[in-house]
Amino acid sequence: xxxxxxxxxxxxxxxxxxxxxxxxxxxxxxxxxxxxxxxxxxxxxxxxxxxxxxxxxxxxxxxxxxxxxxxxxxxxxxxxxxxxxxxxxxxxxxxxxxxxxxxxxxxxxxxxxxxxxxxxxxxxxxxxxxxxxxxxxxxxxxxxxxxxxxxxxxxxxxxxxxxxxxxxxxxxxxxxxxxxxxxxxxxxxxxxxxxxxxxxxxxxxxxxxxxxxxxxxxxxxxxxxxxxxxxxxxxxxxxxxxxxxxxxxxxxxxxxxxxxxxxxxxxxxxxxxxxxxxxxxxxx
Length: 284
Description:
2 domains; 55% helix
């Protein structure tokens, strides 16, 4: 049986842990807040008291943590405790610069790391339908295949270094732009007294169809924003992308300002679709 250590059990980490345990993998988990790990007990996820205990003899180690510096500080502890043949799947969205640092950290410790941020929210993580963006050498990928196949329905291999983290930031920027565009579309319907269902029908029935945007449209219309991808994380990712770009076009700045206002108005922990609430207030 493949043994997996999950370090970080927020929305994504917890969903991944439940999915892997449900598919027969031996899953151990650690989180700074122990209550979040204990909540996974009904899914047969074993709580570890320390990161060292979690990774000991594991075949794969998954990190799903908020920032690069948090990942690096924990890696200093768990890399020496990992089995020599184990693979570290770095699934946190930390950006290319941090991913390169973490790769060097793993290499210096004599361990293998795959840069593997995921495209998708907690719901596809729970159902094993994530798109996995990976960069790493083939041998490490082959070793991690039992984990990757459980978590994702599609794996895109984009290189051998930190390319996956950069692809992820670009994808997240596009996703954020699509949500803001949908929020503005529904706001325009309200302002022009147009039935939004008619506009959505035109979008859904033709070449402009986009399932993700249609899902967000339903959340916005219902004013229900369960956190699949929290606003504050979307804003963080836009900042990471901005840090790596030499020249800034106007659109990313507009997106960041729009999300920042939504976070400042109290929607940071809600789904990114909650940006519609602050956009509506801004035009009231």
